[in-house]
Amino acid sequence: MANDNKTVTVRQISSPQRRPAAQRATLVGLGLNKINKTSTLQDTPAVRGMIAKVAHLVRVVE
To answer: Under CATH, which number does the domain 7-61 receive?
Structure first.
């Protein structure tokens, strides 16, 4: 697979309070639970989809 060693780092920029439970669960799945916490994950289509679902709560760090 071509994406074996690619990673993406995401930082939580907003609180999940007053958000649907599915969005809170997605943040936990990404390894985030507090504002400004970062998580480095494998760059897969599944992870990109999770990031897209909570794009308003996270930022991809370059």
So the answer is: 3.30.1390.20
